Amino acid sequence: MISRLLILLYAIVSYVIFTVSFLYALGFVGNYVVPKSIDMSIDKSIDVGSPTDLSVAVVVNLLLMSLFAIQHSVMARPAFKRWSAKFLPLACQRSTYVLLSSLVLLLLFWQWRPIPTPIWQASGTVAWLLIGVHWLGWLIAFASTHMIDHFDLFGLRQAFVAFRGSEIPGQSFRTPLLYKIVRHPIMLGFLLAFWATPEMTAGHLLFALANTAYILIALQFEERDLIAEFGMTYQQYRHRVPMLVPRLFTRRPADERQPPRSAGAPR
Ligand SMILES: C[S@@+](CC[C@H](N)C(=O)[O-])C[C@H]1O[C@@H](n2cnc3c(N)ncnc32)[C@H](O)[C@@H]1O
């Protein structure tokens, strides 16, 4: 009973730390409210006055993003989960993943080196449109976690189920709402939030480019695991629903289009 209660507390603490890191991410990427953001260091100084400072900033930022990518992707793989199950109860596996991901993110926010060289600057209606798309991206990402199962994704459900003494059910496959339009709405939301900004700087561009590359690679691994888990069901879903760009903007695969009718074909 005590160990189940401790696991539940651990899951709640991990979830609270995730919430802090997510809220900080909103301020960090958008340069709102937080003391240190993607374009502004705490003392508001420009860190990249010389070419050496610039190289250091690029290397440090790439290392921080690589650390997140490695931790986030390695710990998500079934082989890692099987290995960690030898010493980590199933009920706190997901919370541990959430906790470490959040801590690495907070480290990134803390150690990030701003590179404020302007790349583009929009004003007027275009600027407002970009701000709108930026917030729509965060909204899509957050809402989509609830469409598949927010509390399962962040480890709370597993801890609650174990606390009640029930068996933790396996992952279920869901395709509600936005999952009918694209296969990865959470990632689509992040991409919109990262790219849509009225003031793009070199540091922000590095962040958006590196994270886009990471998302495109990570999704290959995620889909490989989903195919291994759900087989034909996921294969068919993959065939039916585009990855990130809604069908409105893309062509259907050739074999899904109606063949042209021949002149004498019956109607
Ligand atoms: C951070 S979420 C991202 C989900 C998805 N890639 C997206 O961008 O919306 C990753 C977890 O979601 C799970 N997942 C992805 N698609 C799913 C679906 N359609 N139904 C249930 N779980 C899904 C993956 O197995 C993985 O554990």
From TrEMBL:
EC supergroup of this enzyme: transferase
EC numbers: 2.1.1.334
Membrane topology type: Multi-pass membrane protein
Record InterPro entries: MddA, NnrU_dom, Nurim-like
Primary location class: membrane
Transmembrane stretches, start-end: 7-34, 54-74, 95-113, 125-148
A family per Pfam: NnrU
Reactions the enzyme catalyzes: methanethiol + S-adenosyl-L-methionine = dimethyl sulfide + S-adenosyl-L-homocysteine + H(+)
Cellular localisation: Membrane
Domain of life assignment: Bacteria
Residue intervals of the NnrU domain: 63-197
Keywords attached to this entry: Membrane, Methyltransferase, S-adenosyl-L-methionine, Transferase, Transmembrane, Transmembrane helix
Keyword field contains S-adenosyl-L-methionine: yes
PANTHER family: NURIM
Family that this chain belongs to: Belongs to the nurim family.
Function: Catalyzes the methylation of methanethiol (MeSH) to yield dimethylsulphide (DMS).
Protein name: methanethiol S-methyltransferase
Protein's organism: Bradyrhizobium canariense
